[in-house]
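Tutorial handout. Part one gives the primary structure; part two gives the three-dimensional structure as tokens.
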Amino acid sequence: MTSSTPAFVAQSRLEPATPAPQDAQALHRSLFTLDSHIDIPWPDQDDAFTLTTGRHVDLPKMQRGGMSAGCFVAYIGQGPTTAEGHVQAQQQCLEMLDAINRMQGERNGVKARVCATVAEIEAAHAAGAIAVIPAVENGYGMGEDVAMLAQFRARGARYVTLTHNGHNALADAAIHRPSLGDSPHRHGGLSALGREAVGEMNRLGLLVDVSHAAKSSMLAAVEASATPVVATHSCVRALCDHPRNLDDEQLDALGASGGVIQITAMPAFLKPKPEEGKRTAGVTDFVDHIDYVVRRIGVEHVGISSDFDGGGALADWQDATQGVNLTAELLRRGYDKSEIAAFWGGNFLRLLGQAERVAQS
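Part two.
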């Protein structure tokens, strides 16, 4: 999520304008495909099982596009770090997680299950159901109450993004908000509460998501977490100098700890803005970032996210029906089936499994 969710008013294409090659289509349908960051509309419209024109992602689009699973986030925009602000954020976060938990059953020929563990995700996939994986975007949603994290996990959440745009009580953000009274730095990374929250997330099996976090916060989280951290929707700073992206030092730390960066379909994070004209990006630009991470830290440390309905969309990956275009580009670059499977969900599932094992221990 970049800021407030923008309206998507154009008619969503239900098939790619230029169909992907047959080998790519066959491979894509054979894979377990997971998108690690999708926003939900709020207030809830209870239309996840309906083919919509106003959303990049709904369950019918996922089914048509051969998408196996998606992490749907309770996104809480940063507000004042006051007692009142925290209470409002906590209430909204729980209500949004409840809405995500209603995205299950069978309607309009689509089956979906809310999944809280890797075993449940794999069982849903085996049964032909889309796996809906809840998550929380912005630790502001817990306020200053670490006990809220257990309520998130009880509602199936699998990760918490430490910050959004603007510092919160847990950590410094990559983008500070002077309108909220932010200076460039508040805690110098993680606060004491942030470190406590990371420990509690490890205990509960919640992944620590460092997308949106300041570099100081991200590196501190890598050190503090017993489970490798994840950047669920970020890109590579060496290719696009945006404060939301991870630089080489951050990528190296992520790789050394066993973590994963999920490249995301946000044009502003993929390509520098041209001096003239409108910035555009496509799957070729997206896969350039995957290539960079593979060369820098290895195949096992990179995955795929869209940030659909939170600002993400590419010229040739506009909604959940068009993921096959990414698979086609990965094939064209010479990646084999096992590598593409790792990008499309295998690496992310590995981290979820590690988080579960740490929690059990």
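Part three, for discussion. Residues 29-77+86-360 form a domain with the TIM Barrel fold (CATH 3.20.20.140). The longest helix spans residues 337-360.
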